[in-house]
Amino acid sequence: MENNTRLAERRATLLQAAAQVSHNITSILDLEQLLNQAVDIICDAYGFYYAGVFLIDEVGSQDRSDNGWAVLRAGRGEAGATMIAEEHKLKVGGLSMIGAATGQRRALIALDVGEEPVHFKNPHLPDTRSEMALPLLVGDADGGVRVIGALTVQSTEEAAFSDDDITSLQAMADQLAIAIHNARLHAQNQSLLAQAQRRARLLEAAAQVGYDVTSILDLDELLSKAVDIICDVYGFYYAGVFLIDETKEWAVLRTGRGEAGAAMVAQEHRLKVGGQSMIGAATGRRQALIALDVGEEPVHFKNPHLPDTRSEMALPLLVGNETIGALTVQSTKEAAFNDDDITSLQTMADQLAVAINNARLLKELEAAHAELVRTKTFEAIATATIEAIHWIGNKALPISSGVDRLQNDLERLPQADPDLLESMREDLTLIADSARLIVSVQEHLIGPAREEKPRPAMLDDVVKDAAVTLGVPADTISYTVAPDLPLALADTTQLRRALGYVLRNGLEAMEGADEQQIAVEVAPTEDGRFVAVRIADSGAGIPEEDLDKIWAAFYTTKGAKHAGLGLSATLQILQQMDGQVSAANAPDGGAVFELLLPVFDGSLSPAELPADKSILLIDDGDGWSRFVETTLRNAGNTVVRSADGEVDPAIFDLVLLDDALETTGSTEVLKELKAAGASDKTTVVASSLRVERTMKLMQLGAQDVLLKPYTPAALAEIVR
Amino acid sequence: MDEKILLVDDERLVLRSIEKTLLRAGFDIETAQDTSTGLSLFEAALTDGKPFDVAILDLHMPNLKGQHDPNAGLELLSRLLEMDTALPIVVLTAFDEVGRAKEAVARGARTYFVKGREAELVEIVNDIINERNEGV
User: Fold this and answer.
1) CB contact under 8 A, A405 and B24
2) Who among B14, B16, B96 is closest to A691 (CB)?
3) Does B96 sit within 8 Å of A447, measured CB to CB?
4) Of A237, A162, A189, whose CA–CA distance to A11 is shortest?
5) For chain A, does the N or the C end have fewer beta carbons within 10 angstroms?
6) Which residues does residue A167 pair with via DSSP β-bridges, in sequence order?
7) Strand pairing of A311-319 and A108-110?
8) What is the pLDDT of residues A453-489, one digit of tens each?
9) Residues 16 to 45 of B: which have CB under 8 A from any A CB?
10) CATH H superfamily, domain A453-598
11) Which of A401, A446, A699 sits opposite B21 (nearest CB)?
12) What is the ipTM of this complex?
């Protein structure tokens, strides 16, 4: 009876202590605090000498063959602190009481400590005479029970625990296990929360960067501010922006944070797209890369300007399908970036890429606008200038006629003083010369400014036309034409004007010389981009000091009879046709002018040629006539070529007459054709059309006078 | 002699200069500085039974509505030829007006004169009149 009463009292005490422990520990969410307070509360509530909590380390439990270790995480008093400092641990499933309790998942009692075989004699707890080891068990997700550790409670009394005590103490241990589990879940939640908060903060920073940079429209300002903003917002050590250059081969550093950045930009730091560097890899693969341990990451470029970098991220700058560059961000902390950060930092990089693209588009737009303004201004000035020159020329016309009349009148003046008459004649001559110069200058000035109508052209033919029109004797000029000469893109009217100026310059340079020879060479340039016309004369050459000046308007070495506009007009004409012109002296004397015109690289339009016509072609046997013959014959027509038209024209459907014939005058040929009644089926072609010539040919009966065709399609237009 | 010539050009100084040159060559000249005056003079001469023998027209003038028009001379040319299909017309052109000069000939102009040496214009008019007289 007394025994039963004592037993009932003890049970009540233990249950009360269990309730007290439970009440005090379940609200503690920090694991360390929970464990430390639990051992104190247990000792106080039960009056134990010592209590300790072991938790099974999670690394060891991953390996199935290894049960892992039960590591002491909290212990009462100095003894506990010392053992924790010694990293006291016991093998799960081992021979110790904790090892057995965790291994067997049941409570064990050692009453006679000196004799119990499973008890480890602990020098820190010399007074222990009874000990109980209680497994800490929690339910797991699939309904089983998992051991997370063990609780040891020790008493200085021998036989302090009975089997009856196990139930109530295990109930307390179960409460503790739940509390530990909750604390751990809480810590996990906290960690997830912290991760989410970090992500939110990075996204907020991305938005901040996006907001700050998208309003900057000047590219240079945008880039330099962007790296500052990125470093400030994220707290990075360094940030730099690389943009891919026009060749698409290099990512060139355009801006970098601080002095390191400035130094690298000054050194024109660049990295190969698709190369080994992180920037190279990020731009090549179009994906973000992280190098956490910078020393070991193989793609990292060891940069002497940034010695403190321990983590680096390279983010591609992408606009649609285009990679425009990459952003590097670097931190002095090891492992500063994780995979989660990629999303938010890439969001920021995307914003930056859009801003850079906008700034670039604006810059292009501004450049286009400036170009437009320049063009419009030039057009306005050109129009005004042409109007002004027309006006001056027209006003000067009556001067010449007035002088003519005055000179006639002068001869009929009765009883005039001969000296006075002579003086008046001289003055009239002065006026007449001046007026003539003004009128002739008008055409030289307006001519080159006329609107261009570039078309595919055979330059060898245009230069020959220019020479024939100018009246260069056939035995004074020789031609060397490269085989398979490509067509050039040129306005032949303007080009013939320019060639005329150059040829005239050559003729004048040779005046009075013993040998008079002009050598013309027409060939493509080595790079295949231009067709070059080289005109070499056997004159005295150009004085070296004049080589640059000859292109200036109104510069002449030939005295008052020239206005000095020919070569300046030539330069203007060639520049307008995207060509070039230069002058030099040949080693063996004489001047060499070289005119370059762009090769026609477009495709020829299809030609709708007639198939059954008989055509008389009156031309020298040159490259152009061979083109006409071949093209028309291949289409199925009959073609007869004659150099002088001494063929009965009656049998032909059509007569094609080249206006520039080397030996016969085309006007003479046309007169004969008219006499033979064939002028109304004669078309005269010329590489350049002028009013006087055209009118003369029309009056001689030509059916039409047209620009010379150099392509099958242009030929078809004429013979159809 | 004393052939009647109609001269139309809006450049006053050019007009007077050509007029003087042709007067000295012995022609009877009437001038107009715009196309509508030119048309009126021509119509009046027809009505009076003293038609013009030759017309010399600038191509670049204000048109019949008084607006600046590069084809005003062509327009007048066509109107004159409607009234007198055999009228010899000389058009005055600038150096670079190939297209318009061809158009003038296509519309029936006898010939053209590129503004410059007026003595050449006298020769052209003489040729036209000689040709006509020989034909008669």
Assistant:
1) yes
2) B96
3) yes
4) A162
5) N
6) none
7) unpaired
8) 889 999 999 999 999 989 998 889 999 999 989 999 9
9) 16-18, 20-21, 24
10) Histidine kinase-like ATPase, C-terminal domain (3.30.565.10)
11) A401
12) 0.78
Domain A209-366 carries which CATH code? 3.30.450.40
CATH class of the domain whose range is A2-189 = alpha beta
Long-range contacts, B127-135 (Cβ 8 Å, 24+)? B128/B54, B128/B88, B128/B90, B129/B3, B129/B53, B129/B54, B132/B53, B132/B88
Q: Would you call A395 an interface residue with chain B, using a CB distance cutoff of 8 Å?
A: yes
Report the mean per-residue pLDDT for chain A. 84
Domains and CATH numbers, chain B: 4-135 (3.40.50.2300)
Nearest C-alpha of chain B: how many angstroms from A593? 27
C-alpha pair distances (Å), A14 with each of A44, A171, A319: 12, 10, 72
- Domain A614-719: CATH superfamily is Response regulator (3.40.50.2300)
Annotate A268-303 with DSSP letters as a single string: T-EEETTSSSHHHHHHHHTS-EEESSTTT-TT----
Q: What is the phi-psi region of residue A64: left when phi exceeds 0, alpha when psi lies from -120 to 50, beta otherwise?
A: alpha
Spatial distance between the Cα atoms of B125 and B118, rounded to a whole number of angstroms: 11
Beta-carbon contacts of residue A611 (< 8 Å; ≥ 6 apart): A635, A636, A637
The arithmetic mean of pLDDT across residues A710-715, rounded, is 92
Q: How far away is chain B from the Cα of A253, in angstroms, using its nearest Cα? A: 56
- Higher-confidence residue of A8 and B74: namely B74
Residue A446 with chain B: CB contacts under 8 Å: 96
Give the gap in angstroms from C-alpha A396 to the nearest C-alpha of chain B: 9
